[in-house]
Specification:
The protein is an all-beta fold. The protein has one domain. Helix content is 0%, strand content 40%. The chain has strands at 4-12, 18-25, 31-35, 41-47, 53-55, 88-91, 94-97. The strands form 2 sheets. The chain has a 5-stranded antiparallel sheet, with no helix packed on it. Strands 6-7 form a two-stranded antiparallel ribbon. A hairpin with a 5-residue loop joins strand 2 (18-25) and strand 3 (31-35). The N and C termini lie far apart (43 Å). The relative contact order is 0.15.
Length: 99
């Protein structure tokens, strides 16, 4: 089995914009499902050492619950991503600064 990407509908925003779900699979049994709404990881199926595949993330089956208050299930970026001008941090002895 080769790696594949499939696209399906995940729901609609109140504005009417469609939200898609992308299902990525590989030859080792890994399946990742990611939306184009905030890059939310809704499912991650990985095999354990005995080859049994299990979903290891918490998530919802459709868009609705993500539009309401929830504990940021599947969040891959922080809620302030790309919103902090002049952000910086220290990594080892090096200062990293975002323009």
């Amino acid at each position: 089995m080769k790696a594949t990407v499939a696209k399906s509908s995940f729901g609609k925003l109140p504005s009417g914009r469609s939200v898609d779900l992308f299902t990525l699979t590989n030859a080792n049994g890994l399946v990742a499902k990611v939306t184009n709404y905030g890059t939310i990881l809704t499912e991650l199926h990985v095999p354990d050492r005995k080859g049994r595949v299990c979903d290891v993330v918490l998530g919802f089956d459709h868009l609705g619950p993500y539009l309401k208050r929830h504990p940021y299930f599947g969040c891959t970026t922080g809620r302030v991503a790309n919103r902090i001008a002049g952000g910086e941090f220290v990594l080892g002895a090096r200062r990293i600064r975002w323009p």
